Amino acid sequence: MGDKASDARLPGTPLVAHPPCRMGDKASDARLPDGTQPATQASGRGGKTADARKLVFMGSPDRATPCFADAPVRPRRGPRWHGNPVQLLLSVATGLALFALPFLNLAPNRLVSGEPLFFFVLFQGPSAALAALQLGVLVALAAASLMHPGRALAGLVAAASIVSMAGLLWLAGEQALRVAQTASALARTSLGGAFWLALLLLGMIALDALQRLRFGAGPRAAILLLALLPLGGLLASGAGDALSIMKEYANRSDAFGTAIVRHLQIVALALLPTLLIGLPLGWAARQHARVGAALFPVLNVIQTIPSIALFGLMMAPLALLAAAWPWLGKAGISGIGLAPAVIALVLYSLLPVVRGTLAGLEQVPGSVRDAARGMGMDGGALFWHVEVPLAAPVVLAGVRTAAVQSVGLAAVTALIGAGGLGAIMFEGLFSSAEDLVVLAVVPIVLLGVAVDAVFAALIGLAERRASGAVKVKAGRHA
Fold this sequence. Notes:
Blueprint: E1 7-8, E2 16-17, E3 27-29, E4 40-42, E5 52-58, E6 65-70, H1 85-100, E7 102-107, E8 115-118, H2 128-144, H3 151-182, E9 188-191, H4 193-212, H5 217-237, H6 244-251, H7 253-287, H8 289-304, H9 307-324, H10 326-330, H11 338-362, H12 366-374, H13 379-409, H14 421-430, H15 434-476
Antiparallel strand pairs: 1-2, 3-5, 4-5, 5-6, 7-8, 7-9
């Protein structure tokens, strides 16, 4: 009530005023007879409200009556925040971890937990400038999360977080060196929870920034490996030699490299039979539903068996076989050692590989198969030139899961004499030496990250080549 109707001039008609549309009227056209957009009329006091009225034609097309109908306008939204909430949350969490958890642990020897040293205590000593610089980088990362995102900003954030990770190691090494100058030779300075958690959170900030740079999987994996160079350079320069973990490494430097090679050998020997067995089983499950119905319950049951129990189950049968056929023992197959470890890892790795192969073949569209057959492809050409390229990303995802899983489970194989990094880890557990455990766990984690990055690059390459490969191969067989 009280709205003032504005006038609208129809083509070839005098100036007229049009009434509002009645309830139940049916609009025949929302445009004027000449095809132009209808006029709108603002309603409300002073015409300043967000409501508007549109001129439409009601009734049948041959006897249309012009009138004004409500045409609400979208409400105006406030300014949108273009920051990075993930980076802000990680930056704040890093600061809280540094000030709430112990940064270092000072102990009189390697078997005692010792007393905590918090990060804020460093502001009162000779390392105050370096600690303040670390805090400044965290504040800068938090401030950058409030800015408009861009490739240049993401690059700066990635570089700052990587430098901050190296700075944390440098700060810990400097403090450990000062403690070593005044304490006894048996004293140990261990890295505390604040260091490890801050290192993890800063790594997540770097990963988030690299994703915003929109690099491919291959360049991103290469950048991640290059990001480890500052940390490796500091360790090689001796900046962390006073830390307890580096003292443990110095005591086992000769066996450490051998343990890493043995660990990789276990993973490789388990992955190769897994592919030779799992890929054909996945293909058979795709061709025959009964094979999958009988196979997957068995593989699922194997996954539920604890790793230590499965390794133990392998020992007795292999020992009996080696006793019955001595040539097996000469070949290295016995109740302990590499053979039971590899067999158990193969059994664990079959499920993700078989499941990934089946899923990859099933997701190939039927229309693509029909088109390939229509172009003259036989069964073999269809499989190798159409199904394999399209299924490769999903199959590689299953192999990726199996490989990363094997890197972790290979550590447990040390309990049955397989060796590797697990031998160092269990030695630390049995002797209550926490830094010795960490010395073995860190390389296992890094190996898992490296294997995952390699397979991520392979999956990205397979996805890019899938569509093009199908077209090229189909054209050759046309």
